[in-house]
Amino acid sequence: MKTSHTLALASLFALTLSAQAQNKTLQLDVSKPLKGAPVQNTMYGIFFEDINYAADGGLYAEMVKNRSFEFPQALMGWQTFGNIEVRTEGAPFERNPHYVRLSPANHRDKRTGLQNEGFFGISVQKEHKYRFSVWARVVDGTQSKIRIEISDPASMGENHALCGKTIDISGSDWKKYTLELSPAQSVSKAILRIFLKGATVDLEHVSLFPTDTWKGRENGLRTDLAQALYDLHPGVLRFPGGCIVEGTDLNSRYQWKNSVGQVENRPLNENRWHYTFEHRFYPDYYQSYGLGFYEFFLLSEDIGAEPLPIVSVGLACQFQNKDPKAHVEATREALDPYIQDVLDLIEFANGSADTKWGKLRADMGHPAPFNLKMVGIGNEQWDSLYPERLKFFVEAVRKAHPEIKIVGSSGPDSEGKQFDYLWPEMKKLGADLVDEHFYRPETWFLSQGNRYDTYDRKGPKVFAGEYACHGKGKKWNHFNASLLEAAFMTGLERNADIVHMATYAPLFAHVEGWQWRPDMIWFDNTRSVRTASYYVQQLYAHNKGTNVLRLTLNGKPLAGNDGQNGLFASAVYDATDGSYIVKIANTSDDAQNIDLSFVGLKKKQNIDTYTVTSLHADNPEAENTLDNTQVVVPKTVNKPSVGNKNVSLPLAAKTFYVFRFKAK
Questions:
Q1: What is the pLDDT of residues 47-81, one digit of tens each?
Q2: Which of 612, 580, 482 lies closest to 534 in space, CA to CA?
Q3: Which of 464, 564, 615, 645 could pair covalently with 656 via S-S, beta carbons 3.0-4.6 A apart?
Q4: Phi and psi for 291 in degrees, rounded to 5?
Q5: Has this prediction a pTM greater than 0.90?
Q6: Active-site residue flag, 380
Q7: Within the chain, what is the greatest distance between any pair of CA atoms?
Q8: Per the residue annotation, which of 264, 380, 425, 436 is the catalytic one?
Q9: CA-to-CA distance for 338 and 630, rounded, in angstroms?
């Protein structure tokens, strides 16, 4: 009996090995490549929200914190010495009324001045150039001087100053003064110091920028972070949030009109995220609006992405306000300013220079329209409060601008009561797209391969506006989470007829100032690192194609279903170069072999040489860091000509692949 049982087990093991050795055959229908559903240019994009110091202290290159002395504690971020006074009378900028008065210390060996700590320090690099500017006047109308230094208080050298220059100030009228500084060495935690060297002066809007900003703009963006966005080849840029659009209360919501015009006169705004998490608390986290809607439109243009601004629907954050009466604009009349904000925004983006808001855009340096095509109204609102208000916005925009697409929301959940309620409401209101959000664990991403297969094709299109895999017990960026995101995205791509946009979130995080993770790009004051999730997004965007191709296993899509051993796949045709692009995520622990059969090639056509790009890490928890940015990066190899209509593709375990084929 024992021998018979052993032989039976051996026989079963052999049969199992034999079954595993049989390659799965995927059929790729290329007979009518241009007949497949078009992949929208907006399919893969980016979502910007000012969380984790993404704007001030991040993408926005300003290095001075509280440059206009408008924080609730007017000198937060500053240390003062000598005779310093904060004043408001006679300020040069109406919406930023605070400035500082520096008076002589009245002793040869005493000093008057102030110093700024920057965002987690002021980080400078040797012999790089930095542009200092300040608005100033001499109180008695005569002459005075100030000494500007970038200093390292921790230096063991004889002099704290890494560099310094003097500015001559004259007259009682406010004027802007500018100079360039170039430090003699690199320091990660420097400070900016200002010494009074003469008669009493007033200073306002004290600013320090690197000169090598993105596109060299004076009020510019940090080059490495903007370049990372450009390198994604995104199709859409959603801005400025997110929850900051809602605000904790309506007064603290993001108001786009405050973020345009002269940068010195853009009022400070309270950031909804600075007080949200007591366990990661940043009391000095505010919005200068230096990175405003004009700059977002410029960035969209620079990186080739369609702009998607999100505006308030008249509801503050419902997560933070359980009593509707505490945060809702209850009457129809009270919504009028919010609705007008949307109409004025469209005019700002697209209006001619002889309109009020189009003229402002032109005066800011962009006479041509930005060609805005869509606008999102509301973020993660829910219950009847949202559609009851959205209705009036839709009516007004449809009447004034029928060419503008409207993006509504399905709330904060990927399924459930609110999700099921809001989707029909969005259809009823005629929204063009519905914004879905899902921050979910591994099991959710593995179960969603078929999510969009059964969506109603006659209703609004889908915008997967915020999503990321949050590893259970590993809520940080690591390879396995990005692999499951790649697997999930095959379902987005297969359903490009209904899914028109998708954006990972959040985008940025400062390593010394984050409140939420995982995030796509991490940075400190001088360095940045692109995560494995970044590379997944980049691989999809760079291999977006133009038309969906039918790719099946036994007549069914490869979507992590039973019997498919953790495989997910999608395929597109790229009419720009005639490529067939196949994406496969092997989420299993097994190496697998598949045969790819090209169905519908012309009689004399065969597959020529092709490329294989893979994203893999032996350790599923591997992550890229600032000190080691190349732990998980894509690798591309060229393969020789196949010479027939079938290709054998070995798949390593836990690996995402992008194959590009051409027929000859």
A1: 999 999 999 999 999 999 999 999 999 999 999 99
A2: 482
A3: 615
A4: -90, 95
A5: yes
A6: yes
A7: 111
A8: 380
A9: 46
